[in-house]
Amino acid sequence: MEKVLVNTYYVQAAVRKRMESGIIAPYLDFIAAELERQGYARQGIRRRLHAAEMFGQWLVNGGLSLADITDSVVERYIAGVPRRPSPRRPSGRLVHNARGIHHVADLLREQGVVPPEPPGTPAPCDEIHACLLELEQYMEQAMGTAASTRRNYLGYARAFLNATFPDSHPEWCLLKPHHVSQFIQQRAEKLAPVSRKDPVRGVQVLIRFLVHKGQLPDGFQGAIPPVREWKHATLPRHIATDEVERVLALCQGTSPKARRDRAMLLLLARLGLRPGEVTRLCLEDIDWRSGNVLIRAGKTHRERLMPLPEDVGVALMEYATLARPRATRRQLFLSLCPPYAPLRTTCAPTQMATGLLRQAGIPMARYGAYVFRHSAATQMVRRGASFKQVADVLGHRSLGTTAGYAKLDLPSLAQVALPWPGDVR
After folding, report:
1. Helix 197-213 and helix 177-188, axial crossing angle in degrees, nearest 10
2. For 357-391, how does the pLDDT look when each residue is reduced to its tens digit (9 = 90+)?
3. C-alpha separations of 73 from 125, 145, 243 in Å
4. What are the residue boundaries of the structural domains of the chain, listed by start?
5. From the CB of residue 375, how many other CB atoms can be counted at a distance below 10 Å?
6. Which of 267, 289, 373, 389 is the most exposed place for a label (fewest CB within 10 A)?
7. Which helix (H) or strand (E) holds 104?
8. Each residue of 148-160: pLDDT tens digit?
Protein backbone atom coordinates (compact mmCIF):
# COMPACT_ATOMS: atom_id res chain seq x y z
CA MET A 1 0.00 0.00 0.00
CA GLU A 2 1.29 3.47 -0.83
CA LYS A 3 2.63 5.42 2.09
CA VAL A 4 -0.16 7.99 2.19
CA LEU A 5 0.89 9.18 5.63
CA VAL A 6 4.60 9.71 4.93
CA ASN A 7 4.39 11.09 1.41
CA THR A 8 1.32 13.30 1.76
CA TYR A 9 0.76 14.49 5.30
CA TYR A 10 4.19 14.79 6.92
CA VAL A 11 7.43 16.11 5.46
CA GLN A 12 9.81 16.57 8.37
CA ALA A 13 11.98 13.52 9.01
CA ALA A 14 11.70 13.79 12.80
CA VAL A 15 7.90 13.81 12.64
CA ARG A 16 7.88 10.86 10.24
CA LYS A 17 10.13 8.88 12.53
CA ARG A 18 7.95 9.56 15.57
CA MET A 19 4.72 8.73 13.74
CA GLU A 20 6.15 5.48 12.32
CA SER A 21 7.44 4.18 15.65
CA GLY A 22 4.23 4.12 17.67
CA ILE A 23 1.91 1.26 18.47
CA ILE A 24 -0.69 2.51 15.97
CA ALA A 25 1.90 3.22 13.24
CA PRO A 26 1.08 0.12 11.11
CA TYR A 27 -2.51 1.34 10.76
CA LEU A 28 -2.00 5.07 10.23
CA ASP A 29 -1.90 4.67 6.44
CA PHE A 30 -5.26 2.89 6.53
CA ILE A 31 -6.73 5.57 8.82
CA ALA A 32 -5.50 8.35 6.51
CA ALA A 33 -6.84 6.62 3.40
CA GLU A 34 -10.22 5.99 5.02
CA LEU A 35 -10.51 9.60 6.19
CA GLU A 36 -9.68 10.73 2.65
CA ARG A 37 -12.42 8.47 1.31
CA GLN A 38 -14.90 9.98 3.77
CA GLY A 39 -14.07 13.46 2.48
CA TYR A 40 -12.11 14.91 5.38
CA ALA A 41 -9.99 17.97 4.67
CA ARG A 42 -6.20 17.76 4.87
CA GLN A 43 -5.99 19.59 8.19
CA GLY A 44 -8.69 17.39 9.71
CA ILE A 45 -6.82 14.25 8.66
CA ARG A 46 -3.55 15.55 10.11
CA ARG A 47 -5.26 16.28 13.41
CA ARG A 48 -6.79 12.82 13.67
CA LEU A 49 -3.51 11.14 12.76
CA HIS A 50 -1.78 13.15 15.46
CA ALA A 51 -4.56 12.27 17.91
CA ALA A 52 -4.15 8.57 17.07
CA GLU A 53 -0.39 8.76 17.63
CA MET A 54 -0.85 10.49 21.01
CA PHE A 55 -3.47 7.91 22.02
CA GLY A 56 -1.02 5.15 21.11
CA GLN A 57 1.62 6.70 23.36
CA TRP A 58 -0.88 6.82 26.22
CA LEU A 59 -1.71 3.13 25.72
CA VAL A 60 1.95 2.14 25.86
CA ASN A 61 2.59 4.25 28.96
CA GLY A 62 -0.35 2.57 30.65
CA GLY A 63 0.78 -0.93 29.72
CA LEU A 64 -2.11 -1.45 27.29
CA SER A 65 -2.22 -2.87 23.79
CA LEU A 66 -4.54 -2.23 20.86
CA ALA A 67 -6.51 -5.33 21.85
CA ASP A 68 -7.31 -3.64 25.18
CA ILE A 69 -9.10 -0.70 23.52
CA THR A 70 -12.73 -0.40 24.57
CA ASP A 71 -15.14 2.50 24.71
CA SER A 72 -14.38 2.89 28.42
CA VAL A 73 -10.62 3.01 27.74
CA VAL A 74 -11.22 5.77 25.16
CA GLU A 75 -13.40 7.67 27.64
CA ARG A 76 -10.70 7.32 30.30
CA TYR A 77 -8.12 8.75 27.93
CA ILE A 78 -10.36 11.68 26.97
CA ALA A 79 -11.16 12.40 30.63
CA GLY A 80 -7.45 12.74 31.40
CA VAL A 81 -6.64 15.11 28.55
CA PRO A 82 -6.30 18.77 29.63
CA ARG A 83 -9.09 21.02 28.39
CA ARG A 84 -9.05 24.62 27.26
CA PRO A 85 -11.30 27.04 29.15
CA SER A 86 -14.47 27.81 27.22
CA PRO A 87 -17.28 30.18 28.26
CA ARG A 88 -19.85 28.01 26.45
CA ARG A 89 -18.59 24.63 27.72
CA PRO A 90 -18.54 24.27 31.52
CA SER A 91 -16.16 21.28 31.40
CA GLY A 92 -13.82 23.00 28.92
CA ARG A 93 -12.99 22.37 25.27
CA LEU A 94 -11.02 19.32 24.16
CA VAL A 95 -7.63 19.96 22.64
CA HIS A 96 -6.85 18.51 19.21
CA ASN A 97 -5.01 15.44 20.51
CA ALA A 98 -8.26 14.06 21.95
CA ARG A 99 -10.79 14.91 19.25
CA GLY A 100 -11.83 12.13 16.91
CA ILE A 101 -10.44 9.30 19.05
CA HIS A 102 -13.79 7.48 19.03
CA HIS A 103 -13.71 7.69 15.22
CA VAL A 104 -10.18 6.28 15.12
CA ALA A 105 -11.20 3.44 17.44
CA ASP A 106 -14.16 2.62 15.20
CA LEU A 107 -11.87 2.46 12.14
CA LEU A 108 -9.50 0.10 13.94
CA ARG A 109 -12.46 -1.98 15.05
CA GLU A 110 -13.59 -2.30 11.42
CA GLN A 111 -10.12 -3.70 10.59
CA GLY A 112 -10.38 -6.25 13.39
CA VAL A 113 -7.50 -4.66 15.28
CA VAL A 114 -9.72 -3.57 18.14
CA PRO A 115 -12.17 -6.17 19.48
CA PRO A 116 -15.87 -5.36 19.14
CA GLU A 117 -17.84 -4.29 22.17
CA PRO A 118 -19.80 -7.25 23.61
CA PRO A 119 -23.38 -6.98 22.29
CA GLY A 120 -26.13 -6.51 24.80
CA THR A 121 -23.81 -5.43 27.62
CA PRO A 122 -22.92 -1.85 28.43
CA ALA A 123 -19.32 -0.86 27.95
CA PRO A 124 -17.50 -0.83 31.28
CA CYS A 125 -16.92 2.71 32.36
CA ASP A 126 -16.23 4.67 35.49
CA GLU A 127 -19.06 5.33 37.91
CA ILE A 128 -19.29 9.04 37.11
CA HIS A 129 -19.76 8.33 33.41
CA ALA A 130 -22.42 5.72 34.19
CA CYS A 131 -24.19 8.18 36.50
CA LEU A 132 -24.22 10.85 33.81
CA LEU A 133 -25.68 8.42 31.27
CA GLU A 134 -28.53 7.66 33.67
CA LEU A 135 -28.96 11.35 34.41
CA GLU A 136 -29.27 12.14 30.70
CA GLN A 137 -31.92 9.44 30.30
CA TYR A 138 -33.76 10.80 33.37
CA MET A 139 -33.77 14.35 31.98
CA GLU A 140 -35.03 13.18 28.59
CA GLN A 141 -37.72 10.73 29.72
CA ALA A 142 -38.86 12.01 33.12
CA MET A 143 -38.29 15.75 32.72
CA GLY A 144 -38.72 16.20 28.95
CA THR A 145 -35.66 18.44 28.82
CA ALA A 146 -34.58 19.71 25.41
CA ALA A 147 -31.33 18.34 23.97
CA SER A 148 -29.46 21.66 24.22
CA THR A 149 -30.50 22.07 27.86
CA ARG A 150 -29.46 18.49 28.63
CA ARG A 151 -26.00 19.17 27.23
CA ASN A 152 -25.68 22.30 29.33
CA TYR A 153 -26.81 20.63 32.56
CA LEU A 154 -24.67 17.54 31.95
CA GLY A 155 -21.62 19.75 31.50
CA TYR A 156 -22.06 21.27 34.95
CA ALA A 157 -23.00 17.94 36.52
CA ARG A 158 -19.85 16.35 35.08
CA ALA A 159 -17.68 19.22 36.25
CA PHE A 160 -19.19 19.03 39.75
CA LEU A 161 -18.70 15.27 40.08
CA ASN A 162 -15.14 15.40 38.72
CA ALA A 163 -14.24 18.20 41.14
CA THR A 164 -15.84 16.44 44.12
CA PHE A 165 -14.70 12.89 43.30
CA PRO A 166 -11.44 13.16 41.32
CA ASP A 167 -10.88 9.39 41.50
CA SER A 168 -14.11 8.81 39.48
CA HIS A 169 -15.54 6.67 42.31
CA PRO A 170 -18.23 8.74 44.02
CA GLU A 171 -19.12 7.88 47.61
CA TRP A 172 -22.46 9.61 47.98
CA CYS A 173 -22.38 9.41 51.77
CA LEU A 174 -19.38 11.74 51.72
CA LEU A 175 -21.15 14.40 49.66
CA LYS A 176 -21.82 17.39 51.90
CA PRO A 177 -23.65 20.71 51.40
CA HIS A 178 -20.39 22.67 51.42
CA HIS A 179 -19.23 20.75 48.32
CA VAL A 180 -22.30 22.02 46.47
CA SER A 181 -22.09 25.63 47.64
CA GLN A 182 -18.35 25.84 47.03
CA PHE A 183 -18.63 24.54 43.45
CA ILE A 184 -21.55 26.82 42.56
CA GLN A 185 -19.84 29.86 44.04
CA GLN A 186 -16.62 29.19 42.11
CA ARG A 187 -18.50 28.70 38.84
CA ALA A 188 -21.00 31.51 39.23
CA GLU A 189 -18.42 34.20 39.95
CA LYS A 190 -16.81 33.55 36.55
CA LEU A 191 -20.08 34.00 34.63
CA ALA A 192 -22.11 36.98 33.51
CA PRO A 193 -25.15 37.74 35.69
CA VAL A 194 -27.57 36.30 33.15
CA SER A 195 -25.68 32.94 33.14
CA ARG A 196 -25.07 32.51 36.87
CA LYS A 197 -28.16 30.39 37.27
CA ASP A 198 -26.83 27.72 34.87
CA PRO A 199 -24.47 25.92 37.30
CA VAL A 200 -27.20 26.09 39.95
CA ARG A 201 -29.72 24.38 37.69
CA GLY A 202 -27.20 21.82 36.45
CA VAL A 203 -26.28 20.72 39.97
CA GLN A 204 -29.91 21.02 41.08
CA VAL A 205 -31.03 18.49 38.48
CA LEU A 206 -28.20 16.13 39.48
CA ILE A 207 -29.10 16.34 43.18
CA ARG A 208 -32.79 15.81 42.41
CA PHE A 209 -31.87 12.73 40.37
CA LEU A 210 -29.66 11.29 43.14
CA VAL A 211 -32.42 11.86 45.71
CA HIS A 212 -34.87 10.13 43.34
CA LYS A 213 -32.52 7.12 43.15
CA GLY A 214 -32.08 7.02 46.92
CA GLN A 215 -28.38 7.86 46.73
CA LEU A 216 -28.93 11.05 48.74
CA PRO A 217 -31.43 11.71 51.55
CA ASP A 218 -34.62 13.69 51.05
CA GLY A 219 -34.14 17.39 51.64
CA PHE A 220 -30.59 17.48 50.31
CA GLN A 221 -31.88 19.89 47.64
CA GLY A 222 -31.82 22.53 50.38
CA ALA A 223 -28.03 22.50 50.17
CA ILE A 224 -28.16 24.30 46.83
CA PRO A 225 -27.66 28.03 47.39
CA PRO A 226 -30.02 30.31 45.46
CA VAL A 227 -28.67 32.79 42.97
CA ARG A 228 -30.30 36.20 43.17
CA GLU A 229 -32.16 36.88 39.97
CA TRP A 230 -34.53 39.76 39.35
CA LYS A 231 -36.98 39.24 36.53
CA HIS A 232 -36.47 41.74 33.67
CA ALA A 233 -33.60 43.34 35.60
CA THR A 234 -31.62 43.73 32.40
CA LEU A 235 -32.57 44.92 28.94
CA PRO A 236 -32.54 42.40 26.07
CA ARG A 237 -29.43 42.88 23.94
CA HIS A 238 -30.50 44.51 20.69
CA ILE A 239 -29.33 46.82 17.94
CA ALA A 240 -31.11 49.37 15.78
CA THR A 241 -32.62 48.54 12.40
CA ASP A 242 -29.95 50.41 10.47
CA GLU A 243 -27.27 48.49 12.36
CA VAL A 244 -28.93 45.19 11.42
CA GLU A 245 -28.84 46.24 7.77
CA ARG A 246 -25.21 47.25 8.16
CA VAL A 247 -24.34 43.77 9.35
CA LEU A 248 -26.35 42.16 6.54
CA ALA A 249 -24.42 44.25 4.02
CA LEU A 250 -21.27 42.39 5.07
CA CYS A 251 -22.73 39.14 3.67
CA GLN A 252 -23.35 40.29 0.09
CA GLY A 253 -20.64 38.12 -1.45
CA THR A 254 -21.10 35.06 -3.65
CA SER A 255 -18.74 32.70 -1.81
CA PRO A 256 -20.30 29.65 -0.11
CA LYS A 257 -19.53 31.14 3.30
CA ALA A 258 -21.11 34.51 2.48
CA ARG A 259 -24.28 32.87 1.12
CA ARG A 260 -24.56 30.57 4.14
CA ASP A 261 -23.94 33.39 6.61
CA ARG A 262 -26.51 35.64 4.94
CA ALA A 263 -29.17 32.90 4.97
CA MET A 264 -28.58 32.15 8.66
CA LEU A 265 -28.40 35.82 9.59
CA LEU A 266 -31.70 36.65 7.86
CA LEU A 267 -33.42 33.79 9.70
CA LEU A 268 -32.18 35.29 12.96
CA ALA A 269 -32.93 38.93 12.10
CA ARG A 270 -36.22 38.65 10.17
CA LEU A 271 -37.91 35.67 11.84
CA GLY A 272 -36.28 35.97 15.27
CA LEU A 273 -35.27 32.31 15.35
CA ARG A 274 -33.14 30.85 18.09
CA PRO A 275 -29.65 29.75 16.97
CA GLY A 276 -30.54 26.11 17.63
CA GLU A 277 -33.67 26.42 15.51
CA VAL A 278 -31.53 27.63 12.62
CA THR A 279 -29.10 24.72 12.78
CA ARG A 280 -31.92 22.16 13.12
CA LEU A 281 -33.62 23.22 9.88
CA CYS A 282 -33.87 20.47 7.25
CA LEU A 283 -34.51 20.73 3.54
CA GLU A 284 -38.03 19.33 3.89
CA ASP A 285 -38.91 22.01 6.47
CA ILE A 286 -39.10 24.65 3.73
CA ASP A 287 -42.23 24.71 1.57
CA TRP A 288 -41.07 26.69 -1.45
CA ARG A 289 -44.51 26.71 -3.10
CA SER A 290 -46.41 28.19 -0.17
CA GLY A 291 -43.46 30.22 1.12
CA ASN A 292 -43.51 28.79 4.65
CA VAL A 293 -40.88 27.31 6.93
CA LEU A 294 -41.59 24.76 9.66
CA ILE A 295 -39.72 25.37 12.91
CA ARG A 296 -39.34 22.01 14.60
CA ALA A 297 -40.06 21.51 18.30
CA GLY A 298 -37.04 22.31 20.40
CA LYS A 299 -36.71 24.24 23.63
CA THR A 300 -40.45 24.81 24.04
CA HIS A 301 -41.51 21.38 22.63
CA ARG A 302 -43.84 23.10 20.15
CA GLU A 303 -43.68 23.35 16.38
CA ARG A 304 -44.67 26.53 14.57
CA LEU A 305 -45.18 27.40 10.92
CA MET A 306 -43.84 30.77 9.82
CA PRO A 307 -44.06 32.69 6.52
CA LEU A 308 -40.85 33.35 4.63
CA PRO A 309 -40.21 37.03 3.82
CA GLU A 310 -39.00 37.52 0.26
CA ASP A 311 -35.39 38.36 1.12
CA VAL A 312 -35.16 35.36 3.45
CA GLY A 313 -36.57 33.04 0.80
CA VAL A 314 -34.18 34.34 -1.84
CA ALA A 315 -31.18 33.93 0.48
CA LEU A 316 -32.19 30.37 1.36
CA MET A 317 -32.74 29.47 -2.29
CA GLU A 318 -29.37 30.89 -3.33
CA TYR A 319 -27.59 29.02 -0.56
CA ALA A 320 -29.41 25.73 -1.22
CA THR A 321 -28.86 25.79 -4.99
CA LEU A 322 -25.54 27.61 -5.39
CA ALA A 323 -23.51 27.17 -2.21
CA ARG A 324 -24.69 24.15 -0.21
CA PRO A 325 -22.36 21.17 -0.66
CA ARG A 326 -23.69 18.15 -2.52
CA ALA A 327 -24.44 15.77 0.33
CA THR A 328 -26.96 13.14 1.34
CA ARG A 329 -27.61 14.81 4.68
CA ARG A 330 -31.03 16.41 5.08
CA GLN A 331 -29.93 19.24 7.39
CA LEU A 332 -30.02 22.56 5.54
CA PHE A 333 -26.83 24.14 6.88
CA LEU A 334 -23.63 22.14 6.49
CA SER A 335 -19.97 22.82 7.22
CA LEU A 336 -17.89 24.36 4.46
CA CYS A 337 -15.22 21.64 4.47
CA PRO A 338 -15.42 17.87 3.97
CA PRO A 339 -17.00 15.71 5.27
CA TYR A 340 -19.70 18.44 5.17
CA ALA A 341 -21.20 17.62 8.54
CA PRO A 342 -24.34 19.40 9.76
CA LEU A 343 -23.75 22.45 11.93
CA ARG A 344 -24.19 21.36 15.51
CA THR A 345 -25.80 23.14 18.46
CA THR A 346 -25.59 26.93 18.49
CA CYS A 347 -21.85 27.47 18.04
CA ALA A 348 -21.83 28.24 14.31
CA PRO A 349 -24.60 30.91 14.33
CA THR A 350 -23.18 32.44 17.52
CA GLN A 351 -19.64 32.67 16.16
CA MET A 352 -20.89 33.99 12.82
CA ALA A 353 -23.04 36.68 14.46
CA THR A 354 -20.27 37.70 16.86
CA GLY A 355 -17.74 38.05 14.06
CA LEU A 356 -20.06 40.12 11.87
CA LEU A 357 -21.09 42.43 14.71
CA ARG A 358 -17.46 43.13 15.52
CA GLN A 359 -16.61 43.57 11.85
CA ALA A 360 -19.42 46.11 11.54
CA GLY A 361 -17.90 48.07 14.43
CA ILE A 362 -20.94 47.76 16.68
CA PRO A 363 -19.81 47.90 20.34
CA MET A 364 -21.65 45.60 22.75
CA ALA A 365 -21.04 44.22 26.22
CA ARG A 366 -21.94 40.72 25.03
CA TYR A 367 -22.15 39.55 21.44
CA GLY A 368 -23.99 36.56 20.00
CA ALA A 369 -26.79 35.36 17.75
CA TYR A 370 -29.49 36.30 20.25
CA VAL A 371 -28.78 39.97 19.53
CA PHE A 372 -30.68 39.62 16.24
CA ARG A 373 -33.55 37.69 17.81
CA HIS A 374 -33.96 40.39 20.46
CA SER A 375 -33.68 43.11 17.82
CA ALA A 376 -36.47 41.51 15.74
CA ALA A 377 -38.72 41.29 18.81
CA THR A 378 -37.97 44.88 19.79
CA GLN A 379 -38.95 46.16 16.34
CA MET A 380 -42.20 44.16 16.42
CA VAL A 381 -43.17 45.68 19.77
CA ARG A 382 -42.31 49.21 18.63
CA ARG A 383 -44.44 48.76 15.50
CA GLY A 384 -47.48 47.99 17.63
CA ALA A 385 -47.55 44.18 17.68
CA SER A 386 -49.25 42.72 20.74
CA PHE A 387 -47.31 40.60 23.20
CA LYS A 388 -49.36 37.57 22.08
CA GLN A 389 -48.31 38.12 18.47
CA VAL A 390 -44.66 38.55 19.41
CA ALA A 391 -44.79 35.46 21.65
CA ASP A 392 -46.24 33.38 18.81
CA VAL A 393 -43.47 34.48 16.43
CA LEU A 394 -40.69 33.89 18.93
CA GLY A 395 -42.12 30.64 20.25
CA HIS A 396 -42.42 31.80 23.87
CA ARG A 397 -44.46 29.61 26.18
CA SER A 398 -45.16 32.47 28.59
CA LEU A 399 -46.21 36.04 27.88
CA GLY A 400 -44.11 37.00 30.89
CA THR A 401 -41.00 36.23 28.85
CA THR A 402 -42.20 38.49 26.04
CA ALA A 403 -43.10 41.29 28.45
CA GLY A 404 -39.42 42.12 28.90
CA TYR A 405 -39.42 43.78 25.48
CA ALA A 406 -41.90 46.39 26.71
CA LYS A 407 -38.99 48.21 28.35
CA LEU A 408 -37.49 48.79 24.90
CA ASP A 409 -40.63 50.42 23.48
CA LEU A 410 -39.41 53.89 24.32
CA PRO A 411 -42.14 55.86 22.47
CA SER A 412 -44.89 54.05 24.39
CA LEU A 413 -43.06 54.41 27.67
CA ALA A 414 -42.74 58.15 27.08
CA GLN A 415 -46.51 58.45 26.67
CA VAL A 416 -47.31 56.72 29.96
CA ALA A 417 -44.50 58.35 31.97
CA LEU A 418 -45.71 60.70 34.70
CA PRO A 419 -44.70 64.36 34.28
CA TRP A 420 -42.01 65.53 36.67
CA PRO A 421 -43.52 67.96 39.17
CA GLY A 422 -41.73 71.28 38.67
CA ASP A 423 -42.03 72.46 42.26
CA VAL A 424 -40.72 69.26 43.81
CA ARG A 425 -36.99 68.91 44.30
Report:
1. 160
2. 999 999 988 888 989 988 888 888 777 777 677 77
3. 8, 29, 51
4. 4-110, 127-223, 241-410
5. 23
6. 289
7. helix 101-110
8. 788 889 999 999 9
